[in-house]
Amino acid sequence: AQSVTQLDSQVPVFEEAPVELRCNYSSSVSVYLFWYVQYPNQGLQLLLKYLSGSTLVKGINGFEAEFNKSQTSFHLRKPSVHISDTAEYFCAVTTDTGRRALTFGSGTRLQVQP
Amino acid sequence: GAVVSQHPSWVICKSGTSVKIECRSLDFQATTMFWYRQFPKQSLMLMATSNEGSKATYEQGVEKDKFLINHASLTLSTLTVTSAHPEDSSFYICSARGGGPSAGDTQYFGPGTRLTVL
Question: How far apart are CA B21 and CA B8, in angstroms?
Answer without folding.
Answer: 6
